[in-house]
């Protein structure tokens, strides 16, 4: 099969050199391909690169076609701008390449853009598909803070969702289908699409019918590829995308640097394979196919290509191709009524960071809410309209007034927010890029109902955060806006704004309209007055406002970590706030108001002094855990002075509590002090109960998100490990030996092959039953492993003939050894691995610091831990098997693990998650948002979890700072 590889080239020399280097690596299906470039460079160095490429491949590179050199591509780190004249000029170049392929009887033309790095198997794979028109996928972040998106689409200019003829989609359904399409493309396969380009194999049969890139006069779609795809469809040629070997797109300078590293690594692998001296006389028993190794390297350096946004916010025409424009005007629109002593001040301070003007209706306030608006928005144009009488009893008329007054300011974008709503902190950096880079007219967000200063409500009746609602819209003068004519719950915008082009965004909104009992009571009473029959609302939701045990989830805002909790200043009337059985219920308010929840298992009596602590349902004396007693046998806890009220610990340190300490724990002091300890990672006192289990308790940090055992300072992990990793555990491992070896040992070996190709000395901490050490030894490493469990060591010797050293890692001292085997601790390890060990370590900073000191200067540390943000934990909640493991002292996320590494003098080189297919059925069944899924849907879900870093296992490769 004769193939012509063609490319129009107007490229920077440093980008072009990498593109050509990758082209040389392409494998050919049978006959070596020819190359034909259109040299449209205005930089002579780039033209010289093309000449040098021809010299390296004599007889295969045809004399270049000349370009017109009448433009300069305008681009920066934010976007690339192609004016129409440039688009159709490139279309002409591509058509010249088509003509050449036809005239010289080539069987296929492979058109590829000159800013791509291709996998060596790309061309062979596209030929193997036997499709007339097929592209290899690549992913691009068109805006620096935007989502990664494919160069293929479903319909029109760039729709990424399927829609039947005449079908009308809600915003939620459209978003769901966009995600389905995106996730499907992350699964290796061949898929039919509606549009493609930039890396396309076109067989002669399609070229002969007359498909080309010229402009279709009566079509206004932007881009020559769209006109090509329309012609293909008109001629009856389906379009396909292959996703086995994603290319890397060098769209920005950072991409070029990654591409250099990628090619350097691939060349190193090739050299080692071709160098006889680099391999031993006995070939290793375990080999990894070359194309898989190359794919792993692509994944490493183009790792963003595998990130799927949790909520697709989609590119639009302007985001893909328009140049940076002046900042769009953003108008805040709001109604207020008696908000001065609530969240209004904090809300306005957050909004003033990014708005250009504000229109606010003061709907009959009897406090100084209006004056507060003037003071806090000083310097920003403000239209403050006052209604002498409150009109919120007829909400639709108030909303119409708000809309009318806002339009009087000639807005461009309208941000409609209530006085108790505010975006998460990262919104201020991203909002203007979001507005400048979208063609949509309405943008939808998720709203989180905050039920306490630190938690949002998440149960069957409170699910606002699972759906997207419009908060931002671009005013269109010609659009016929229509209102939902009902006096309550009519919506903040006209009812038909979602008929405008819409998209969703993953920026989150906090709703503070429920976060204290007093506010909840007032709103409940208002709903009872305005909607007693729940005609406009949901009766069960109204009644659930006073649910004594709502399910709450911890709100994490990583951009604010390290800053004192933003709500502590307001905690004078909520001191003593604690999570009750992971609910965040305000105990002091409950006591003060004499509230007695109806559910007996969580009943809380009024308590006024320490002596009033009663043994009741949820109020009882507790015994300390056995391991705690063993660790503190010389200083026992006075059990009569240890109070636990619905899961709230009043234990401080390891001494018997005084009356004043118990009172402080219950009433007087902040959340962290009530738990008796600060966060073990960031030091914040903003810790709260995560969950109380039968034998241990987990705390959560509201600042950094770490979850950890409250008694971690008193734990002897060796005792736990000896009890847990016994003969039964070894038998379990043996029953799954094949999957354990394949899914874990070989995976670890692949990581080493990618990041530590030298195969020197390797140390593994916690070797378990020896699979990884065996694989490493077979692969050529000089490997040694430490394992404290005698049963595990015996199994490793019996099964794999591997001698593991007994004992625990204990820093600078040598591990206890048997016989003549000794463990060297002289900074000489090229790699140190600890697979699922770190979560068992009571002092992780000291542990990691010690390991860092055992590495060679350029050595690498490999870590896996359970992922706190995993789908497993999402499905099972506090009863997830990851949380209920007694020996899991810490639960790390990507954020907290990175911070821990930094404290230990390490930096992550790669950080990602894995979700294996095994057990997925049970997870889906347990998850409240999923039903029956087909095999394809399950595989798509796996890809989604991988991309969103919600896999079961968090994997990290780190080196010393």
Task: Describe how the helices and strands are arranged.
Elements: E1 3-9, H1 13-24, E2 34-39, H2 44-56, E3 65-66, E4 74-75, E5 80-81, H3 84-103, E6 108-112, E7 116-117, H4 122-128, E8 133-141, E9 148-150, H5 171-185, E10 190-193, E11 199-203, H6 204-208, H7 224-234, E12 239-249, H8 253-274, H9 290-301, H10 317-321, E13 330-336, H11 344-351, E14 357-363, H12 369-376, E15 382-387, H13 395-407, E16 413-416, E17 421-423, H14 427-436, E18 442-449, E19 455-457, E20 469-474, E21 502-511, H15 517-530, H16 539-544, E22 552-554, H17 587-593, E23 619-621, H18 626-631, E24 643-645, E25 648-649, H19 659-668, H20 671-675, E26 687-692, E27 697-701, E28 707-709, H21 717-724, H22 727-735, H23 737-755, E29 761-765, H24 771-779, E30 782-786, H25 790-800, E31 829-835, H26 844-854, E32 855-866, H27 871-876, H28 881-884, E33 890-891, H29 894-903, E34 906-914, H30 920-926, H31 935-947, E35 953-960
Parallel strand pairs: 1-2, 1-6, 2-3, 8-12, 13-14, 13-16, 14-15, 18-21, 29-30, 29-31, 31-32
Antiparallel strand pairs: 4-5, 6-11, 7-12, 8-9, 8-11, 10-12, 16-20, 17-21, 18-20, 19-22, 23-24, 24-25, 26-27, 27-28, 28-33, 32-35, 34-35
Helix pairs in contact: 1-2, 1-8, 5-31, 8-9, 11-12, 23-24
Concise structural overview:
The protein is of the alpha/beta class and about 950 residues long.
The number of helical runs is 31
Please tell me how large the radius of gyration is: 32 Å
Strand content: 15-25%
Shape: flat
Distance between the termini: 51 Å
